[in-house]
Amino acid sequence: MRVLGIETTCDETAASVVRMSGRGGGDVLSNEIMSQIAEHAAYGGVVPEIAARAHVEVIDRLVERALSRAGLRLADLDGVAAAAGPGLIGGVIVGLTFGKALALAAQKPFIAVNHLEAHALTARLTDAIEFPYLLLLVSGGHTQLISVRGVGDYRRLGTTIDDAVGEAFDKVAKMLGLPYPGGPQVEMQAASGDPQRFSFPRPMLRRPGADFSLSGLKTAVRLEAERIAPLRPGDVADICASFQAAVVDVIIDRIRHALKAFRQQEGDPSALVVAGGVAANGAIRRALSRFCGESGLLLVTPPPVLCTDNGAMIAWAGIERLRLGLTDGLDFAARPRWPLDADAERVHNGKA
Ligand code: KG4
Ligand code: ZN
Question: Is residue 340 in a domain?
Fold first, then answer.
């Protein structure tokens, strides 16, 4: 089974062909990506209109390249998958419409993929792990702990009540005058800083449940930076190291709580899976690996190119759905919001 996947929900245009392999996982035959970081950098964040236009400009070339690198023609595919949300609506419409048009022209099944589900299932592409597992999804837009019970079957154990982890990294970078995107910059600075110089708060630590809150930590960083201004290079490094240490402590504490809830509900998870751009952070990876070692838990961290937004994860989610007969009509509409666990979302918004 070979599926083309298209991703345009945020600031990367991506297209990939993935083939189901005999050992249970998948083979990535091509994985084309074009980042728009340079176009958004001047604004310190993603500008939706610029993103949508940039997707339009490159999507056809990118898909063509994904097919030719895979050595395939449209007719060789078993299906076309496109991310249908959640994300910036203008961009989502570009990839979704392009995917539908290809499926229609080639007379292939179409699969509308939830971007979050694609992140959640990537560990099965790379490591062929079994359900159920505990997922930590940490990106610029999302921070969630999810019990992944099967394709289309997710229970959210925790989420952030304010900023996403990647967003907190980006905002801290911005207030320290570091370029966008801030996560890698903060990590680089932290490498030469003193994580104990500032004792920043660890919001939610030891609180029941597995929710996150990061805005208090971000404010504490801002107040400290203002207090000791003007900042010397050593100060920036120490602030980054102390901030990152606080984030690591919060993440480990929240996972500990989520794991307890998981074990009560589902028994033992097959693994702890980490996905999303923040999973590229070395300090977080090391802490997770220590935690999993102590808890006797398998840790699965897909390689960074498959942790950040990419087309292969969309293609793989397409394969997972297609083999269960879960295809979609060409009238499937783009969804700016599309929670994995709709019940948890309603409870969280106080609407249940
Ligand atoms: O998954 P992703 O590529 O895009 C979405 O947000 O969906 O994640 C990007 C986020 C940004 O907030 C970026 O600052 C953060 O991931 N990030 C990092 C690191 N690399 C990327 N955060 C901390 N440390 C890193 N090394
Ligand atoms: Zn993402």
Answer: no
Which of ligand 1's atoms lies nearest the C-alpha of 166? Answer: 12
Is the Cβ–Cβ distance between 58 and 296 less than 8 Å?
no
What's the whole-number average pLDDT of the chain?
Answer: 94
91 membership: H or E segment, kind and range? helix 89-106
**Listed residues: CB within 5 A of ion ligand 2:** 139, 309
Burial class (CB in 10 A: 0-12, 13-18, 19+), 8: buried
Output the pTM of the full model: 0.93
**Structural domain span for residue 241:** 131-297
Question: 169 and 317: one domain?
Answer: no
262 plus 314 within the same structural domain: no
Based on the fold, state whether residues 213 and 68 are members of the same structural domain. Answer: no
- What pLDDT sits at residue 195? 98
Lining ligand 1 with CB less than 6 A are: 10, 139-141, 166-167, 169-170, 181-184, 187, 276-278, 280-281, 308-309
Mutate which of 143, 278, 309 for ligand 1 pocket (most atoms within 8 A of beta carbon): 278
Residues 234 and 309 in one domain: no
Render pLDDT for 216-259 as a digit per residue (tens, 0 to 9).
Answer: 999 999 999 999 999 999 999 999 999 999 999 999 999 999 99
Q: Would residue 328 count as lying in a domain?
A: no
223 lies in the same domain as 87: no
pLDDT of residue 8: 97
Q: Are residues 151 and 274 in the same domain?
A: yes
Which of 160, 279, 304, 147 lies closest to 218, judged by CA?
160
Whether 182 and 170 have beta carbons less than 8 Å apart is answered as yes
